[in-house]
């Protein structure tokens, strides 16, 4: 395995290995940790004329996950926008 470091870029070579009927590439631990990839993580595989790109799938948080982050410290007061001017529900 060879590494190449340039400003803001980390690249390396690794070997492709047989995995069942497919081929697999190992992701080094420090790269996996940097992108929060663990066993079972989903990766998006893109192919273009230049090569193969793997990116972690970032899922949107659920409403429940967002609501769980509300605390007394980050909760704001009710905002009064004035009286109704159209067909708003009261």
UniProtKB/TrEMBL annotation:
Keywords: DNA-binding. Pfam families: MazE_antitoxin (PF04014). The keyword DNA-binding applies. It comes from the Bacteria. SUPFAM superfamilies: AbrB/MazE/MraZ-like. The keyword DNA-binding applies. One of its GO terms (molecular function) is DNA binding. This is AbrB/MazE/SpoVT family DNA-binding domain-containing protein. It comes from Virgibacillus phasianinus.
């Amino acid at each position: 395995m060879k590494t190449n470091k340039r400003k803001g870029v980390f690249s390396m070579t690794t070997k492709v290995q047989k995995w069942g009927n497919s081929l697999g590439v190992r992701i080094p631990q420090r790269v996996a940790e940097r992108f929060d990839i663990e066993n079972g993580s989903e990766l998006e595989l893109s192919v273009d004329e230049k090569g193969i790109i793997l990116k972690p799938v970032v899922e949107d948080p659920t409403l429940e996950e967002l609501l769980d982050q509300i605390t007394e410290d980050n909760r704001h007061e009710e905002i009064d926008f004035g009286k109704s001017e159209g067909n708003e529900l009261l």
